[in-house]
Design goal:
Layout (H helix, E strand, L loop, with lengths): L2 E3 L8 E2 L3 H10 L7 E5 L5 E8 L4 E8 L8 E7 L5 H11 L4 E5 L10 H21 L7 E4 L3 H5 L7 E5 L1 H5 L5 H7 L6 E6 L7 H9 L3 E3 L11 H14 L2
Parallel strand pairs: 1-3, 6-7, 6-10, 7-8, 9-10, 9-11
Antiparallel strand pairs: 2-5, 3-4, 4-5
Helix pairs in contact: 2-3, 6-8
Length: 246
């Protein structure tokens, strides 16, 4: 069944006003009166809804649905600005894998350089990608996208998290294999985990030192060296295995 995210609080009857959502509902998917869809509001509860009037875009909420597919932990993925369209790929796939938020920051060794205007345009594009991925994967929550123009603004957010882990190549080379497991297994449902990843060139020693001074721990992600766009997917998959699979 089709699913759509609707901004605001649930109310019935409801008029859908977002132009992109309306276009997809009634022009692309050709919804008609009495057709049913799933709507997800800001509270994260899925609700079965029925089309009352396709011309006026009116819906009636039928019932709340028990479906809950969010990760037990609120995991934020933070990447040093990667090259090309890798951030688009990361946004889509980490949304499918359950990321609570998607962040990116100007790492010391980032090749990509984006000013505020480009970042705003990029964030808008990434938010649309995350929206599509969240609807496809039937998420209860829509990941929030934040692109930081200044690294200091990114660092200032560390205090919001219960744990901060840095995926560090040198830790993997040194045989570190326990930090991610220990961190995840030591957290309770609803707690917040920040996972940090470098760009193509990795994270600089100075950045690692700064992160550790702010309370972060370095973690290896297995013996193989992963690409910038692969590491976040590996880490989120590992979190899912540790938290959701028995």
């Amino acid at each position: 069944m089709q699913q759509y995210f609707i901004k605001g609080q649930a109310s019935s009857p409801l008029t859908v006003t977002d132009k992109d959502t309306v276009k997809h509902m009634f022009s692309v998917m050709r919804l008609a009166e009495n057709d049913q869809v799933v709507l997800v509001f800001d509270d994260g509860i899925k609700r079965l809804a029925r089309v009352l009037d396709k011309e006026a875009h009116h819906f009636e909420l039928v019932e709340d649905l028990p479906d809950q597919v969010e990760l037990p932990l609120q995991v934020t993925i933070a990447c040093g600005f990667p090259k090309g369209d890798k951030l688009e790929f990361i946004s889509q796939k980490t949304t499918e894998l359950g990321a609570h938020a998607i962040w990116a920051f100007p790492a010391d060794w980032s090749v990509a350089k984006w000013d505020r205007k480009k970042l705003d345009k990029k964030a808008e594009k990434l938010s649309k990608i995350a929206l599509g991925a969240a609807e496809q994967s039937k998420r209860n929550r829509l990941p929030q996208v934040s692109l930081f123009e200044k690294k200091d603004d990114f660092l200032a957010r560390f205090g919001e998290f219960d744990r901060v882990l840095v995926a560090y190549e040198e830790s993997a080379k040194g045989g570190e294999t326990a930090a991610l497991i220990k961190a995840v297994q030591g957290m309770k449902r609803g707690q917040k985990l920040l996972l940090i990843f470098g760009p193509e060139g990795g994270l600089s020693p100075a950045e690692i030192e700064t992160f550790e001074q702010l309370g972060a721990s370095c973690a290896g992600l297995g013996p193989r060296i992963l690409r910038a766009e692969t590491a976040p997917l590996y880490a989120l998959s590992a979190v899912s295995v540790l938290c959701e699979l028995k």
